Inverse folding.
């Protein structure tokens, strides 16, 4: 690219032409992790987690053009676009294109490219996701109650996956030695924590009967969400807000209820009757009494 092209312009040139083709978006993501210069071999294994999240969105039809016979989701398309754009702008900066990071999330992506690690990957990925959530609340309002419920599920899952790597004591208590392995985005186990495909049907849009979908949740997912993550939500959102340097994130949880475009008084889907196994997990793996210091 000519030297006068800024990194932000470079990102728009890479991402813009792909926006109305889900498969083209996949290709843009694939190329992002392959180069063109620098530490490609160190970054490439992280494409596993990024691609799994992208594939889930494509499979559901979330990224279809808005003028398609069955349109995609304007909100999900915007969130996906933010992650792609941040990555390509960061790559442009790292290969010498002019400019400064236009957002905190781009700066985090630059840090990952220069020093790839599970911690820097999660910080870059999650800061892009959280920034897009906060930027596109108006688009989220147009989605169904069920879709907005699962927006919150996706958010708490990606925050928890980050904590497994960067705050293992918060995430798993006395089982913390296993946490970095379980959350490592280079390994297949990460998909267990990020995937909600066994809860959501493989289609878009959804109806408004949240409770029906929650009742179908796979046993492990129910155990993870209600036995492990739910008791830690206050600590998790607070820790994530500090780690991502995004204080508004803490406001997306009220009284233990995720409230991204969700009324805090609508508690029923978040507090189903716990099974005996969920109760046992809560007793055997209690949440810390206060926010522990990140690390082993």
């Amino acid at each position: 690219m000519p030297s006068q092209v800024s990194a932000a312009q470079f990102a728009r040139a890479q991402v813009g032409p792909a926006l109305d083709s889900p498969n083209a978006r996949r290709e843009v993501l694939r190329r992002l992790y392959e180069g063109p210069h620098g530490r490609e071999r160190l970054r490439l294994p992280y494409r596993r987690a990024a691609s799994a999240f992208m594939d889930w969105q494509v499979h559901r039809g979330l990224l279809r053009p808005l003028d398609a016979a069955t349109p995609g989701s304007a909100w999900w398309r915007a969130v996906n676009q933010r992650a792609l754009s941040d990555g390509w702008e960061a790559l442009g900066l790292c290969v010498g294109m002019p400019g400064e990071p236009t957002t905190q999330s781009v700066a985090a992506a630059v840090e990952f490219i220069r020093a790839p690690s599970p911690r820097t990957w999660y910080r870059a990925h999650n800061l892009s996701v959280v920034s897009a959530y906060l930027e596109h609340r108006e688009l989220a309002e147009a989605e169904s109650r069920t879709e907005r419920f699962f927006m919150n599920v996706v958010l708490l899952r990606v925050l928890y996956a980050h904590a497994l790597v960067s705050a293992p004591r918060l995430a798993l208590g006395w089982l913390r030695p296993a946490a970095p392995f379980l959350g490592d985005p280079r390994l297949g186990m990460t998909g267990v924590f990020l995937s909600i495909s066994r809860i959501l049907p493989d289609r878009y849009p959804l109806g408004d009967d949240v409770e029906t979908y929650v009742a179908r949740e796979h046993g492990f997912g129910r155990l993870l969400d209600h036995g492990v993550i739910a008791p830690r939500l206050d600590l998790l959102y607070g820790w994530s807000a500090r780690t991502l340097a995004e204080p508004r994130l803490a406001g997306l949880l009220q009284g233990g209820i995720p409230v991204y475009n969700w009324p805090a008084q609508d508690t029923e889907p978040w507090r189903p009757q716990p099974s005996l196994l969920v109760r046992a997990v809560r007793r055997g793996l209690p949440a810390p009494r206060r926010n522990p210091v990140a690390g082993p």
